[in-house]
Amino acid sequence: MDTSASVESWLVAAGRNSTPGSPLNVPLYPASNFVLGGQRAYARGDSTPGWEALEEIVGGLDGGSSLLFASGMAAVAAVFEQLPTGSVIALPDDCYQGATGLARAGERRGRWTVKRLATTDTAGWIKMCEVADLIWLESPSNPLLNVADVDIICAAPRKRGAILGVDNTFATPLNQRPLALGADVAVQSATKFIGGHSDLLGGVVSVRDANLLAGLQEARDLAGATPGTLEAFLAVRGVRTLAIRLERAQSNAMVLAEKLSRHPNVSLTRYPGLASHPTYEAARRQLKGFGTIISFDVRGGAAAADAVCRGLKLIQHATSLGAVESTIERRACIHGQEHLPPSLLRLSVGIEAVDDLWADLDRVLRQPIPA
Ligand SMILES: Cc1ncc(COP(=O)(O)O)c(C=O)c1O
Predict the structure, then answer these.
(1) How far is it, in rounded angstroms, from Cα 119 to Cα 150?
(2) What is the pLDDT of residues 328-354, one digit of tens each?
(3) 7-239 has which fold?
(4) Integer Cα distance of 105 and 162 in angstroms
(5) Ligand 1 midpoint to CA 320 (Å)
(6) What are the sequence ranges of the domains in the chain?
(7) Looking at residue 168, what DSSP letter applies?
(8) CA 48 from chain center: how many Å?
């Protein structure tokens, strides 16, 4: 990324074709096959201009080279694929269930061993850096929003050949740049903030090392984990407004988190921007903004939390996050998340008017708790 350009301008200007007479936007690029003798022969291995537009934009934001994948999980899997058999993976105990499931499945098949650590156990992570082949951080974490000491952990000496990866989905490169903090790999589910409209699946990996980039490219090619044509187009269209969407949703989230934390029917509000959050200091140090996700516990247990989800009108009862519309779900319902507090609701705050969002929440939180 041109360091003189601000992030907001880069998001709008990057990934375009400036040849006179060409369309301003890289058009939909439906191509699997190319006339032989040129730069590309077959899209799975040789890419398409549609994917490369998004890769240029995100690579610039992350400060590395990026590859677009079919989904966030395809991107995570390509990173895990880099590990030799017999590796040790260090994984946070509060981590997206897909990454946990992938690690566990590989362990069952004898591919690697998995060690789990608390996101906040910085001393443990530093020790792990000396023995693990993959140090996997997710910060802020899903759904407890714990912020790891990414800067401190990245600075610790690592085992030779080890990869330190950060799932940066919740922060986005606008709030945190893992490669600049010393990570080898930054991963995002492009399904979330990059796309921003709940209409695509995608994932992006950014790295600085050319060998790692080649390994990831090979993994994408061999697994066929390539993005769809329309999805790449939509992701570029979506990412153009990332800065403005994030700014608005983040400011909404701060207001709602403060109000939720004072609400009589909410027993606990987790938001990295609240001084009461256990990792508030790490968040202040490392994140440019506190993000758009809030987790809160409703008084009255699972039944009360389900009633909140059912009663909301503006906020959609749906999974996922990072879109223009606010969504909410009870996370303990999700397979692999049963260990979470039964009344924990994860709210992804969108760009609606904050007063309307609060009116919706306050109305359902005040309704009688179901027996
Ligand atoms: C933190 C995190 N990482 C990765 C993923 C996986 O992304 P995708 O659903 O695009 O495969 C998700 C999905 O929810 C996520 O929340």
Answers:
(1) 10
(2) 999 999 888 888 999 999 999 999 999
(3) Aspartate Aminotransferase; domain 2 (3.40.640)
(4) 21
(5) 8
(6) 7-239, 244-365
(7) -
(8) 24
What is the arithmetic mean of pLDDT over 294-313?
97
Does residue 167 have its Cβ closer than 6 Å to ligand 1? yes
Extract the tokens encoding 92.
Answer: 């946070």
CATH number of 244-365: 3.90.1150.10
169 lines ligand 1 (CB under 6 A): yes
Nearest-atom number in ligand 1 for the CA of 74 is 11
Domains 7-239 and 244-365 alike in fold: no
For ligand 1, the distance from its centroid to the CA atom of residue 73, given in whole angstroms, is 6
Q: Using the 8-state DSSP alphabet, how is residue 187 labeled? A: E
Compute the distance from residue 103 Cα to the ligand 1 centre, in Å. Answer: 14
Q: Is the pLDDT of residue 84 over 70?
A: yes
Ligand 1 within 6 A of 326 CB?
no
Q: Is the shortest distance between the CB of 87 and ligand 1 below 6 Å? A: no
Shortest-distance Cα residue to atom 15 of ligand 1: 96
Residue with tokens 């090619």: 221
Tokens describing residue 103:
């690690």
Say how many residues make up the chain.
371
